[in-house]
Structures are given as structure tokens and as C-alpha cells.
Amino acid sequence: MSTEVRLERVAKSFDGRTRVVDHVDLVVQPGEFFALLGPSGCGKTTSLRMIAGFEEPDSGRIIVGGEDVTATPVHRRDMGMIFQSYALFPHRTVAENVAFGLRMRALAKAEIRERVAQALRQVALEGYDDRRPAQLSGGQQQRVALARAIVIRPRVLLCDEPLAALDRKLRQSMQLELKSLQRELGVTTIFVTHDQEEAMTISDRIAVMKAGRIEQVAAPREVYNAPRTRFVADFIGDINLIEGEWRAGAFVADGKVLPAPAGAPSGAATIAIRPERLRLGAATSALLKGRVATRTFVSGQVHYRVRLESGRAVAVKANESAGDFAVGDEVGVEWAAGDVVVLSE
């Protein structure tokens, strides 16, 4: 049965003044693959370590499966942990590494052998029992670390940037494998990463963190298409941020009324538009005109940077079939009001 993880007003500081985690409230649903995402120093790893029991909160509670585990020692929390460094014992075999947690629980030798064999099958490492970590590739070592975490059949699996040391292609492959295995096991998984693409690829939901606080919790699609704050909009993928003001409910920037959902009667505002939502065309009848400053071909798309007449630069991503413009060409830039997100701060 999958397990819910709940943080209630959890706070932590290391110097008595600066809160690394600032009264965080969070609920991870049973069986969910949940990512804590943010830049270095945002509090995501400290939050994970408090869930695991490696750090004790200054205040607040950690509830796992309805049980308050805030003061429960690490070895009694029934959690599996995968570290970025793998943390394998170099002089022990693969089987011995995987069996470590089971031996600590004093299981019978026959059951240990059976469960180790099953875990190695699940991570596609059958036949590697007698090898040592130095004889394995980085991806294989990561699989051993994963097998060691799942062999104890934890109620929660915690992952601290476990794929960061792998090269891009292997990391992408391991993301899919980890997601597939998590689905098969049905274990509640909390995954810490600073990689936006990784979080978007593997997570059911994401908590975006900044300076010890959670800026937004949502499914990847919602975080991307409907960011709540300027930080989330700017941190997740590429985006155009345009500062302006409301005048009678219309958004005005650079002296022009720009397409945007109706807003407040007056006041400063910022709108956000993803580069793929912008369209380039003839400059003659366009509301905004500019010239192509740069043009780059990236993975089947053409990425443009257009310098508008106001001096503002915008990024545009277009398929090759949408037209082809050269550096220096005069172009019109358009978007629909429905493509715009109005940011709360």
C-alpha cells in the first residue's frame, strides 16, 4: 500500500538566523512521483534530508502514512534513499551492496538471496552479483544503488539528484527506467533535482522552491503553461517577460496595448509568453515590428531573437514550416491573448 508524506510548517536553519527551509507545508500523495525542484541553496535537499531523518526540523512536523516521524530515527522510518554519489561499498560485491539493508534488518539468508535476486532483475542487473562497483559503468552503479534502495521494500523512496553524474543520453535513459520501475512498484517517490527538464520528464507533480519556500506545486504541464510567479516562469524553460501596466483593464507596454487577458483597472504588471507561442510574419500590418538579431537551428526548430522597435528583445521558437527569416530581416511579432500568463509577482 502506498504512503502519503506530509510536511506541516517545517522550518530549518543552520546558523540560527537564515531559514534554509521556511515553514513549508506540503502533501505528497500515495504512490506519487514528486519532484522538489529549484536552484542550489533553495532548501530542496535539506527538505529531503529532514524527511529521511538525517536532519531534524527546528519546528513543524513530518507525517508519513499518518504517523508523526519528526523525532523517529533514520533506521526506523522505513525509507529507501538514493544519493548522487551512489554511496556503494567499493570492496563489496553487487549482491553484498544490495543485501546490506536486509542484513541490517536481520532477515534470514534464504530470504535475502531471494529478494536480492528479485531486485537485480528489476533493475536489469541479473548476472552481476559477483562484480564490484569499480567493474561497473556509471549507469550500472546507479542501478545497484536503486536496487539497494528498493530491496528493503520501503514505504517511501527518496532520491537526492541521483542522475546528476551521468552523461546526458544515459541520464535520459535512466529517467525513463526509474519512472517505469516506480510505476511498477507503486512506491511514493520524492526526487530532488535542479534540472527543470528532468523534473518535467519524470514527475507527476513538481514543487518549485526558492529561498526555502515553495513557489508553486502543480503537474509539469501546469507549471510550464501557467506559472504563478515571475520566478517560476523564468526558472522553468525559456520565456519572454514583458513589464508594463494596466490601463482600464488593458495591458500596455512600450506605449502599445498588447494582447493579454483582461486585468486590473490600473497598476504595474508583468506578462509571460513562451517563445513557441510567438509568431513571426510580415512587418507591414503587425502590431509589433522588429528585426531578426540571431537565428539558430536547434533540434528541428528555428530559434530567433528579435529586436523590437522599442529596443526590447524577444525570443521566438518556430518550426521550419512556419517560415524562414534571416538575420537582419524586418518581421512582425504577434501572439494571442490566450497565450499570455499574467504573473502575480
Q: How would you describe this protein?
A:
With 345 residues, the protein is an alpha+beta fold. The protein folds into two domains: 5-232, P-loop containing nucleotide triphosphate hydrolases (Rossmann fold, 3-Layer(aba) Sandwich), CATH 3.40.50.300; 238-342, OB fold (Dihydrolipoamide Acetyltransferase, E2P), CATH 2.40.50. It has eight helices and 20 strands. The protein has helices at residues 44-52, 94-104, 109-122, 138-150, 168-185, 196-202, 220-225, 230-235; strands at residues 5-13, 19-28, 33-37, 59-64, 67-68, 79-82, 156-160, 188-193, 205-210, 213-218, 240-247, 250-253, 256-258, 266-273, 279-281, 288-298, 301-308, 313-319, 330-334, 341-342. A six-stranded mixed beta sheet has the order 6-7-8-3-9-10, sandwiched between helices. Helix 2 packs across helix 3 (109-122), helix 2 (94-104) runs parallel beside helix 4 and helix 3 (109-122) crosses helix 4. The protein is elongated. The two termini are 40 Å apart.
Number of domains: 2
Instruction: Give the overall shape.
Output: elongated
Average pLDDT confidence is 92
The parts where pLDDT drops under 50 for at least 5 residues are none
CATH class annotation of the largest domain = Alpha Beta
Query: What order do the helices and strands follow?
Result: EEEHEEEHHHEHEHEEHHEEEEEEEEEE
* Shape-level CATH architecture of the largest domain: 3-Layer(aba) Sandwich
Q: Give helix % range.
A: 10-25%
Characteristic key phrases:
elongated; single chain; OB fold (Dihydrolipoamide Acetyltransferase, E2P); Rossmann fold; 345 residues
